[in-house]
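Hey L., structure's done. Input below.
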Amino acid sequence: MYPDADIRLPKKFDQNMLESRSKRLLDRCSAECSESFKTLRVARAKLAAFI
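Output:
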């Protein structure tokens, strides 16, 4: 389907491993997003205090 997307998976790659990797990635993205929103809220509060 996508010839350039040649992804090599371990021979013993199973559903549990896939779910585990997906969960870790989702958790990391979630944490980064949460951190960004905190920064944004702080910046918004500082701006409101300045005005």
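The chain has a mean pLDDT of 83. The longest helix spans residues 15-50.

-- N.
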